[in-house]
Amino acid sequence: MQFKDSLANFNISFTQQVQDLFDQQPESVSPKLLSAMRYSVENGGKRIRPYLMALIAETIGVNSDKILPAALALECIHSYSLVHDDLPAMDDDSLRRGKPTCHIQFDEATAILAGDALQALAFSLISNADISDNVKVYWTQCLAKHSGYLGMCGGQSLDLIAENEQVDLAQLEKIHSLKTGALLKCAANMACAAKPELKLSTYQKFDRFTALIGLAFQIQDDILDVVSTTELLGKPQGSDEKLAKSTYPSLLGLEGAKQKAQQVYQSALEQLAEVPYNTDSLAAFAEFIINRKY
Amino acid sequence: MQFKDSLANFNISFTQQVQDLFDQQPESVSPKLLSAMRYSVENGGKRIRPYLMALIAETIGVNSDKILPAALALECIHSYSLVHDDLPAMDDDSLRRGKPTCHIQFDEATAILAGDALQALAFSLISNADISDNVKVYWTQCLAKHSGYLGMCGGQSLDLIAENEQVDLAQLEKIHSLKTGALLKCAANMACAAKPELKLSTYQKFDRFTALIGLAFQIQDDILDVVSTTELLGKPQGSDEKLAKSTYPSLLGLEGAKQKAQQVYQSALEQLAEVPYNTDSLAAFAEFIINRKY
């Protein structure tokens, strides 16, 4: 099966799991808040993070059911970050994946609360998973670290500060390794943790692989913001330039950014080469990241 | 020692623990975000939740050091909820405990992120505590449940919907049991969980005691909003009326609300009477809640 087809299939079954998750929540508490939470996770994009987690699990021989709570939790975290990111005080976006953003569809206060409640739901999911306490604790540590001040939130803060400022390549890389890379690393780490007997060196290779994939993803994102269309992206094309953001193309030129993306992609493949499992699906994943058009 | 003095002493030592916690975070990620997080937790109020947790721990013979990570986590959650609650899209408050609210002191985007990162920090703290995995998992489940959709966030959503609407007493009680009661119950439950050999019946009495205390707290809050002063409260007096909120005084009259508070207080004391420990300090806590002037 082509990579795009298996990603699309995964997307369908994962989105069904998201629907099941929200069907299980009691409506009676606050139907409006629950709708806003559901809306934000169901309006999923490519489901890159849970898919990466599933691929790594499959690669090392962990049943995908076992890591499902962690995958759902990660997607709740990612979704909440987008809801808050889209708020007027932050990126002020009215469109996300071609649909009204949460605060447009509902209201700002509900969007803030929906994000907050999605974060709590993430930790609820992993702490109630059908897996050993040991793994649950590791998952909680991992998700809290990579999503909080030391990860995603820290990166978003730096990203906001960097608007209208010229940042250098090192700072840009730091921003993205926190803002985007942290959750991808978290996906890899959580999948590996479901197999406690995994070799530490393999864990480290996957960690490094996803850090590089995260960087490649961001460079490609910056490139697409220049060369793609609003229709393909599902969000306004050219928004980085509008916000006067430093990007890989603005710092390296478009060709330089493309070269950099290729270099990072090659380094990611080198990490995989040293893993003692069949990593074809992960190599295809890396290729998709670097060649995607949307 | 008088109750007020021990609460004040606790406040000083707990605030020191908060300072130590933030001193341990690396500044290098995003100094601005870290400052906003720190500002929001250091600008503490009465520290009711961690104090309640400490009192219950002491009552059942659990060392206070053992529950410190849970107490700090709970205070991070409470603080983040205030930061987000104060935002223009929510209560739009510029003053909190006599000081500028987080989004006034910093900016709105930073306040949103600081709240988000404080929630993650809370889960990081409990998952890294020096206690058995079993207890950490329970703490995570408990905190996620009581702070999320099924607890605090759900209650805040209902509270927002109830603005400018007439709600009945049952709905008002539901709102407050979620919005305020849930975190107090969480304080009790987390303290109890640190002693796995505790009788379930005692756990349940403390759970019920704190639910009642939470209700009494809220009724007294509503009463103070009518009879106290902005200076004593550290926030604008009369803000409920301004927002056309249904409150206990608006539904029951001021005298009716005072009677209701007394009834709830007596029920709370009845719960304590059945606990096989010396509960004098918890009775004093309940009395403080009901008689406080600020």
Measured as a percent range, the helix fraction of chain A is over 70%
Give the tally of β-strands of chain A: 2
Radius of gyration of chain A, whole Å: 18 Å
Biggest interface goes to: A-B, 54 and 53 residues
CATH superfamily of chain A: Farnesyl Diphosphate Synthase
CATH top level class name of chain A: Mainly Alpha
Looking at the structure, the CATH topology of chain A is Farnesyl Diphosphate Synthase
Mean pLDDT of chain A: 93
**Would you identify the CATH architecture of chain A?**
Orthogonal Bundle
GO biological process, one term (chains A, B): terpenoid biosynthetic process
Protein name (chains A, B): Geranyl transferase
GO molecular function, one term (chains A, B): prenyltransferase activity
Keywords (chains A, B): Isoprene biosynthesis, Magnesium, Metal-binding, Transferase
